[in-house]
Amino acid sequence: MRKIKTGDEVMVITGKDKGKRGKVIRIAANDRVVVENINLVKKHVRPNPQRGVEGGILDREMPLHVSNVAVFNLESGKADRVGFKMLEDGQKVRIFKSTQEVIDV
User: Fold this and answer.
1) 9, 36, 76, 85: which could join 72 in a potential S-S bond, CB 3.0 to 4.6 Å?
2) Structure pTM?
3) What is the CA radius of gyration of the chain?
4) Quick check: 28 pLDDT over 90?
């Protein structure tokens, strides 16, 4: 089980986009995540009429390392660390470290 999953609301805690929030679009290889509208770069794209791809300069989201983002806690309004807890029925769930509240069931 991963501490950060697709669809989580995360906050960037270091780097050029520090303090920005976004939703995790996908989990990339080597412990990297792609976050919506975060870490945007200019990508030069060559046109390909057979695939219907227009050329030009596009803004594209690039992966961030997992250590540079933290799950956003709506109650406290801050980024929070994530831990794991076993419920009575034997199910493993993610919790916020500060409040011990379950993130998802």
Assistant:
1) 9
2) 0.85
3) 17
4) yes
